Amino acid sequence: MAVRCVIVGAGISGLALADALCARGIEPLVLESAPRAGGKIETRNRGELVVECGPAGFLDREPAMMRLASSLGLRVVDALPAARRRAVLAGGNLLEVPRGPRDLLSTTLLSAHGKLRLLGDLFVRRSKGRGDESVGAFARRRLGSEAAERVFFPLVSGLYAGDPDRISLAAAFPWLARLEAAHRSLLIGAARELGGRRAGSRLRTFASGMEELPRALARRLGNTLRLGAAVRALSATPAGWRLSVDEQGAASELEAPAIALAVPAYEAARLVASVSPAAHAATSAIEYVPVILVYLAYRVEQLAVPADLYGFLSARGGSTRLLGAVFHSAAFPARAPQGTVLVSARLGGARDPAIGALNDAQLVGLAHQELAALLRISGAPLDTQVIRHARALPQYTIGHTLRLALLDDAERACPGLFFAGNAYRGLGVPDCVAAATRRADEIAAYLSAQGVDGKRGAREQGERFSQADLRGP
Ligand SMILES: Cc1cc2nc3c(=O)[nH]c(=O)nc-3n(C[C@H](O)[C@H](O)[C@H](O)COP(=O)(O)OP(=O)(O)OC[C@H]3O[C@@H](n4cnc5c(N)ncnc54)[C@H](O)[C@@H]3O)c2cc1C
User: Fold this and answer.
1) Options 1.20.1260.100, 1.10.3110.10, 3.90.1300.10, 3.40.1260.10; which CATH number does 110-193 get?
2) What's the predicted TM-score (pTM) here?
3) CATH entry, 43-81+287-393, from 3.30.300.30, 3.90.660.20, 3.40.50.150, 2.30.110.10
């Protein structure tokens, strides 16, 4: 008896998809090449320090994310009010980011000329026929160069670590495009819409770290999830799809009517190269940027400037090599023992991909030196850790929406082949969960239209797979 749906990749996208399919009566088989589930979500404990290798928290905007956390019985922890304060590093100074359209007029981030130009947003016409406009062009057109560089681009860097002049507004910030279309002025639109939306979205995490989420999902999936099982190749069969799997050196093959590739786009591109040139073209065009996190711990007394905000992002053009920094202990005090400040400096991104050539000691030295100058830190850090992501974040560059349309066409031409993951329609963990939930509906509908009985247990398939198929010859 063949498996009905195989999910390749057990990052949050693959896990949430599997969980949502189970909830729809279809138990899939999830294959994950790493020895642990979670992908980019990983929490490491170093003594009493809690180090987040990927996401440090999430915004509670997506109901699907909150439903999932609640169904898993996870305790969600709110960030302290200090986490609402964020700064931009510009001209060597940390300047607090305005929290709403009204604060824009009193902020020290902008000159009087910059503020006047910002008000020009009230009179700028809606975008017409600009095609796939970049975030950079959009922000300069509506808000002027100064507000774009000092307020908007650091935000883009914080989310995508990307180049605003290459990121597509429609793909990366569709809500901003909608705001302009609905209200003409961003300031008016933000005042009308964002007030309520922001008030309702809080930064949160889980009690012992973000990895609680994938761990709980993995537990619930049980032997539906196979760790250390790397999919090496994919081919089409008359009844669906065949996967070549390598589990701890043992090769085997597996067939299923439906396959969901919940892997990074470059890995999806490799797997579909021989089965769909169109899907290969779309996925291989999605670029990634590297991100390095340098964690540093200090005693509170070492800092002359208190770290009582979520963190800062650097404006372009300064001398700093830091993309920004997060003060984890200010947002989530349980991440460090009392009296300790835990900060992570963010480096790399589209702005500085070459920084990966530095060794760990050089990265720690650089991050410490820059933070010490900003926060007037005396003495050396108590502890440090360097986390490297060579291909951290997919970039929704100009042409992304066209690539998604191409991918949708390719899916239609390859019945039973589905793509999932953060490379396509949302980067944040809650976006991945919401997208996975929608994908589960589509896969369930596909299997039902094919007359494939989804109720037969994949747990039973998992057992069969583990005992027979995965051992190989
Ligand atoms: C440094 C950093 C900070 C971030 N901060 C935040 C944040 O604060 N808030 C937020 O909401 N989001 C944040 N994100 C984004 C978020 O973490 C990711 O978008 C999300 O975790 C991606 O999940 P995914 O399942 O789509 O992909 P991944 O996590 O990349 O999972 C893909 C999985 O596929 C597996 N795989 C790959 N190839 C194969 C194969 N051939 N066979 C089997 N398995 C395979 C991989 O091992 C991996 O487990 C951050 C990301 C990074 C890198």
Assistant:
1) 1.10.3110.10
2) 0.93
3) 3.90.660.20
Q: Which residues approach ligand 1 with their CB closer than 6 A?
A: 8-14, 31-34, 39-41, 54-58, 230-231, 262-264, 267, 291, 293, 389, 392-393, 421-422, 427-429, 432
pLDDT in tens, 189-233: 887 876 655 455 899 999 999 999 999 999 999 999 999 999 999
CA-346 nearest atom, ligand 1: 1
pLDDT for residue 201? 83
Residue 361 dihedral angles phi and psi, to the nearest 5° = -65, -40
Q: Which contiguous run of DSSP H or E holds residue 118?
A: helix 112-119
In this structure, the residue with its CA closest to atom 14 of ligand 1 is 55
- Please write the tens of the pLDDT for every residue from 120-168: 888 888 777 678 999 999 999 999 999 999 988 998 999 999 999 999 9
Which of left, alpha, beta for 56 (phi over 0: left; psi -120 to 50: alpha)? alpha
Nearest Cα residue to 24 out of 470, 459, 472, 447: 447
Q: For residue 72, which phi and psi values (nearest 5 degrees)?
A: -90, -5
CATH topology of domain 5-41+212-285+397-469: FAD/NAD(P)-binding domain (3.50.50)
Asked if 376 contacts 305 with a C-beta cutoff of 8 angstroms, the reply is yes
Nearest atom, ligand 1, residue 41 CA: 21
pLDDT at 462: 39
From ligand 1's centre to the CA of 9, what distance in Å? Answer: 9
Q: Give the closest residue (by CA) to ligand 1 atom 27.
A: 11
Q: How confident is the model at residue 471 (pLDDT cuts 50, 70, 90)?
A: very low
Mean pLDDT of 25-54: 97
pLDDT at 131: 85
Lowest mean pLDDT among 68-72, 248-252, 264-268, 359-363: 248-252
CA distances from 458 to 6, 211, 468 (A): 9, 25, 14
CB 348 within 8 A of CB 356: yes
